[in-house]
Design a protein that fits this description.
metal-binding; NO2/SO3_Rdtase_4Fe4S_dom; iron; 4Fe-4S; globular; 9 helices; alpha+beta; five-stranded antiparallel beta sheet; 12 strands; Dissimilatory sulfite reductase (Desulfoviridin) alpha/beta subunit; 290 residues; five-stranded mixed beta sheet
Length: 290
């Protein structure tokens, strides 16, 4: 079988990644938000032993790869992957698997990251037709474990705290844990500096009197981030956006990218060429952002 560049590209788009070793491929399996059942994991292990060399690797986007699969076995592996309820994770100019942290169960998590990732995966993966790849990342809090700022569009969980002065004893514990130095104790009460607050919720979590409460929660929105040889930190365009608004913001961003992007141009470059303010006007207009 002759493997020309077009065929190799088509295979890569379908989740078969050519290795530098002749005739061998890595099989990339999509795992939504990094969640896979114990039974599926056992089956993947069996596939690695049957078709590969008995091991798997994990990708930065929380997928699984089985390396060392001979090209004559690619279709067989694909069929077996699908039989266990999983699917291939392709490359190319389309929506890539969505990265999300464990904010749903993490003590620091401020939003249901796993549920959100599943919802967005159902709605948008693997939408094609972009000038280049389109990546999304979700972090449950400002710790940013999944680095949403380095995705084409990223979301970071946030919570705005509010103090019940009648319950505050001025103990200072909230001020001690506030890494942003946004809280101080004045006249026996905790005082929050709105300009310094990063909406991490640490004050709410540690207050022994439950004086700090959630006023509202949402997400920070970042656009235009990317890894690679020319990496960029995404633009921070909004704070405390309602989680329910996320799909609409993604859809508007995708439409902007498809309408304005040039072939092989990442979203960051499209925004810079067209103008950040023009992008914000098109995407955030009529949305609730801070």
């Amino acid at each position: 079988m002759i493997f020309n560049d077009d065929l190799v590209k088509a295979l890569k788009d379908g989740g078969f990644i050519k290795q530098k070793q002749k005739d061998y491929y890595s099989i990339r399996i999509r795992v939504v938000a990094g969640n896979i059942t114990a039974e599926q994991m056992r089956k993947v292990s069996e596939l690695a032993e049957k078709y590969g060399r008995g091991y798997v690797t994990f990708t930065v986007r929380l997928g699984i790869e089985i390396p060392w699969v001979h090209y004559t076995k690619l279709q067989e592996v694909k069929e077996e992957v699908e039989r266990i309820g999983l699917a291939m994770a392709g490359c190319g100019p389309r929506v890539r698997p969505i990265v999300a942290c464990k904010g749903t169960v993490c003590p620091y998590g401020l939003i249901d990251t796993q549920g959100l990732a599943k919802k967005l995966d159902d709605e948008f993966f693997p939408t094609p037709g972009f000038p280049h790849k389109f990546k999304m990342g979700i972090s449950g809090c400002p710790n940013n474990c999944t680095k949403p700022q380095f995705n084409d569009i990223g979301f970071q969980g946030q919570v705005e705290p509010e103090l019940n002065e009648d319950l505050c004893t001025g103990c200072g514990l909230c001020a001690d844990v506030c890494e942003a130095k946004a809280i101080s104790i004045k006249d026996g009460l905790a005082v929050r500096d709105d300009d310094k607050c990063i909406y991490c919720g640490s004050c709410i979590r540690v207050c022994p009197m439950d004086a700090w409460k959630k006023k509202r929660s949402g997400v920070a929105v970042f656009v235009g981030g990317k890894f690679g040889k020319k990496y960029n930190f995404g633009y921070h365009i909004a704070d405390l956006v309602d989680v329910e608004k996320i799909p609409n913001i993604i859809e508007k961003t995708m439409n902007f990218y498809k309408s304005n992007g040039i072939s092989k141009e990442r979203l960051y470059d499209t925004i810079n060429r067209v103008g950040l303010e023009n992008f914000k006007k098109e995407v955030l207009e009529n949305e609730d952002e801070k």
